[in-house]
């Protein structure tokens, strides 16, 4: 090491396998994996109760005045605020819109809460707000209400955002993991791992020979195209924190069905595969922000896949596996060499703060 080279800041590193300390919150509790599920199961669910919460979907399906509504909330703490392919403003809209869409809802209105750190430049806040507004218009939703708070310098990270959303669920649509049955076909809407690697590359100054842009996008239009084929989709999930592996495990656990994934069928772009090889990551666990995974009855799978591929956000959709009656609640992958490996729920998070 030369005299001018700065030593790595080891205190800023985050262990991908965090210590399981039940007495204190660790970074892994926010990663969408086993620690997140444990926190929800042991702390929040007992405190809140209620049948709407018990379904534990991406959004809650509730009835109000004779209408079925999807209701969701999400918070965004990504760093950096701007990255190739998007910003925290885009994420704040698309993340909540997608949670509503995974219930089959037509997203309609959002609330938006900004938590600003004292000292952040007003122009930065303006750029984030403009990106958020543009994303909302592109997604066909209206920001109907909001809130702003400021915390002391050193007690935030520039800009945090919370968005909540509501949308109308069409009559006859019933998307939930409990509907999954053996024989269902598993379809992913496109290449995985793009968003997480894009964030890591810009945050850590890594170069992989080609710029990797986030796949951040609103998926409501793609879901509408799928439902136009048949309302009898069983479940949809957007594999954000914890990646495809976490989404599949959540569905398997809630449905009681086993899931078999053909590893070679999972679309992983070459730059993402190369980056994961360098970083020692499994693309199945890397976050996405513009992809969905669907469990579709076998008799509708071909038609749904065709409709997805006809949509701009589903051109590279692929069948990656099926639900089975063996190994209930477990996800396994068939490797290219003919072996089988368990794809478990991640403990924490491979790439911290990607949304």
Automatic annotation (TrEMBL):
Gene3D superfamilies: PurM-like C-terminal domain (3.90.650.10), PurM-like, N-terminal domain (3.30.1330.10). Coiled coil: none annotated. Residues 182-327 form the PurM-like C-terminal domain. InterPro entries: HypE (IPR011854), PurM-like_C_dom (IPR010918), PurM-like_C_sf (IPR036676), PurM-like_N (IPR016188), PurM-like_N_sf (IPR036921). GO terms for biological process: protein maturation. SUPFAM superfamilies: PurM C-terminal domain-like, PurM N-terminal domain-like. Residues 58-169 form the PurM-like N-terminal domain. Belongs to the HypE family. This is Hydrogenase expression/formation protein HypE. It comes from Streptomyces marianii.
